[in-house]
Amino acid sequence: MRYLALLIAVMIVVPTFGQRKKKEDEGIAPAYVEGIVYALPRTGIKVHVEAIREKFEPGPYAAYAEQLLGIKDARSTASEKWSVSAVKIETFSEPDPQQIYKAMGDIASTISLAPNGCLAGINATATATVPLQVQSNKTFQRPDIDDGFSFDYFSDTPFVIPGDSTNNFRPTRVSIEQKAAEAAQRVLDCRMNQYDLAALRIDGEYPDGKAYEVSLEELKRTEQNYIKLFVGRTTYKTESYSFDYVPAANEKNAVIFRISDVNGIVPASDLSGKPVTAEFEQINGLLSKYQAEAVSENPDAGYDGVYYRMPGMANIKIIFELNSLASARATIAQFGTIAPVPEDLLGGDYSIEFHPETGAIKSVQLK
């Protein structure tokens, strides 16, 4: 009976051992083997935008511009317009949530990671690191600063004049036509005074050259202020913004932000504006060549869970209403392909460094 029980125990253990050995031979790591989790990087673009707001305020006497001063087509409707004056494209790197791996077994004790969790080296004594940086993106407009100018108060003639015996001395409000005529007269007076100053200058009767320049400049400024009562005035304000975008592996174009005549530069989700898109044109043939050469005939390729990236390249254009605002040629990690690090390089005889920004191999050295 004792021998029979021993025989039964052996029959139970042997198949279990055979199954475990088979799993190990097939390259499946035992459940108790732990590893180090890491990520491969992906590339995002940061678009810096400088925009100018052009705001027009019509003059209160626009209807009389042609009649009194001969100025045709004076605008009578307020308007606001935003335009992009400068665009700059930069790239940044971050861990790719679609490319998370675990280095298994003894290899796990040899890898080093960048501060953002991306693979930096294997058996490497000094590896490049990507410092963690935070850069705020502005997404709002600064409030307007009052420059003190107002059409409501720009006048040197009274709005109300005293009455006389014809109306029982009741105060009478000055009509807009009369005030427009008085403003037009100020413009003509300024022009005539400039002529008189120039005539005196030519005749050599003006005593002080500096006083002449100051007087002439003041007359010109006064003339222009009165003309604004007819033609209106335009003010400008400059704003700066930044937007981040991470393209997908095969993405061709995407809306980065929008331009609204009323709200200015707005996020891509704000449909009040017209879209500004980024177009990504991948370098022809690069990805297919990478994929063809990355194929490994080693059945154990990737067994240790260590992978690297062969990044792609792309031409980037920022487009608004069919016009190119900016362009750049950049390395985009996710436009490339991924391959396992050859198992022969992971035995401890080699030191491998990676570019944490792209996931590409930087160097392989025999120790």
Highlighted features:
alpha+beta, four-stranded antiparallel β-sheet, disordered N terminus, 37% strand, 5 helices, 367 residues, 2 domains
Strand arrangement within the widest β-sheet reads 9-8-10-11-12
Please summarize the sheet with the most strands: 5 strands, antiparallel
The low-confidence runs, each spanning 5 or more residues with pLDDT under 50, are 1-27
Principal-axis shape:
rod-shaped
How far do the termini sit from each other? 60 Å
Per DSSP E runs of 2 or more residues, the count of β-strands stands at 14
Q: What's the domain count?
A: 2
Please estimate the helix content. Answer: 10-25%
Q: Count the DSSP helices.
A: 5
Judged by helices, strands and strand pairing, the structural class is alpha+beta
> Which value, in Å, is the CA radius of gyration?
38 Å
What is the fold's blueprint, element by element?
Layout: H1 2-25, E1 35-57, H2 65-69, E2 79-104, E3 111-113, E4 119-122, E5 160-161, E6 172-173, H3 176-203, H4 209-231, E7 233-245, E8 253-260, E9 264-267, E10 274-282, H5 286-294, E11 307-320, E12 323-340, E13 350-354, E14 361-366
Antiparallel strand pairs: 1-2, 1-7, 3-4, 4-13, 5-6, 8-9, 8-10, 10-11, 11-12, 13-14
